[in-house]
Amino acid sequence: MIDFYTYGFPSCWMVSIMLEECCTDYVCHTVDVTQFEQNTPEFERISPNHTVPAILDRNGPGGKPIRIFESAAILHYLANKTGKLKGNTEIVEVEAYQWMMVVITGVAPFYKLGIEKSTLNESDKVLNIRKSQIEKTLKRYVSVLDFRLREYQYLAKVYTMADVAAYPWICNLEQNFDIYLHDFVGVNNWYSRLKKRTAIRSGMSVP
To answer: Which site in 17, 21, 35, 189 is 20 to 30 Å from 80, CA atoms measured?
Structure first.
């Protein structure tokens, strides 16, 4: 059994989708970051970085409990633990990891930055300039994904943790930014395929 600590962020949905795809038994624990519950001493023992998502696997390596924080680390751990979505060859496994890192180091940070900037108390002119710059960078990263997905159905050629990592960020782009999936044929077709997956629908419904 895995204890899953979450709060309805795209990074958390990455993990809930992965848990569903891996058919792993888990229990959700909501950590209300608006009430600073991530800063409690109890949660610090789970996630020293005071961030969600995090998991506690009570049956970790050697049958011993293990605590893991940071979304990419959790996906990598679950893929190795279950043997699912890590790639069916060594080459695919490397490709899955590198495309997941494009999401984690590129798409995700600028997505978060765009959301944070929209809540700052700045003039409309300054906010519009900053949002435009952020959206320009986000579009570049989406274009990188699109270049790949115009050639292959999935980021690592087959469905892997890289696709799981990308989906929660891509599916929320249009409602938060002036970025439209129909402008990216490869990404749009990929999104249309993935949103039909039962595990993705279940994972995205986790609060």
So the answer is: 189
User: For residue 155, which of 197, 102, 90 has the smallest C-alpha distance?
Assistant: 102
Helix (H, G, I), strand (E, B) or coil at 151: coil
Count Cβ atoms below 10 Å from residue 101 Cβ, excluding itself: 13
Pairing mode, strands 54-57 and 66-69: antiparallel
Does this model's pTM top 0.85? Answer: yes
Which are the contacts of 75, defined by CB distance < 8 A and separation ≥ 6?
A: 14, 15, 18, 100, 161, 164, 165
Residue 46 to residue 116: CA distance in whole angstroms: 25
Residue 79: exposure state from Cβ atoms within 10 A (0-12, 13-18, ≥19): buried
Contact between 23 and 44 under an 8 Å Cβ cutoff? The reply is: no
Can you give the pLDDT of all 207 residues of the chain as single tens digits? Answer: 999 999 999 999 999 999 999 999 999 999 999 999 999 999 999 999 999 999 999 999 999 999 999 999 999 999 999 999 999 999 999 999 999 999 999 999 999 998 876 555 556 656 677 788 999 999 999 999 999 999 999 999 999 999 999 999 999 999 999 999 999 999 999 999 999 999 999 999 998
Dist CA 28 CA 92 (whole Å): 31
